[in-house]
Amino acid sequence: MACCHIYSTSITCFLAILIVIESAKSKASNARMAGCSASELEIGSVGLICFVSVAVTRQSYFIHERSLNVFISNAYAQSSGGLASLGGDGSLMSFLPLVLMFVVLYFLMIRPQMKRQKEQRAMMDALAKSDEVVTSGGVLGKVVKVTESYVTLEVSSGTEIVVQKVAITMLLPKGTIKAI
What we know:
Helix content: 55-70%
Distance between the termini: 93 Å
Strand order of the largest sheet: 4-3-2-1-5
């Protein structure tokens, strides 16, 4: 339907331009008899052609816009009537995926990490003299002295080093160092 309007307006525009050209030719012959220059007549006829073509083009644009409205339906905002039966405006339903992701994240990552930290803290608090441990640097040693934040380890007979308690990563079973 829109194509028919565009073609009909194009044909109308073409016919209007032909009519303007023919009238300009007849005016030119009359003006030559009256003594006007040809350039003045050409400027006037070109201006008239442009005016007619713009008017016809505008009319075809508005006809085309009205015909497109048949194929495109208007979009209206939804009312919250359907969501009211679900419990409000649906804000809880929009946050549900985020809440589910947090719950999964808690059980897969946060809770096991907290459990490991708790075990590490319990192991550090339970350190006693003559325990065998491994440091984060991989050094094996026997605990000689324990203070609040430092531990003195005997690495070999007569060699002692002082390390931070947080550097102790693992408590070994007794007799492991002698077996190595």
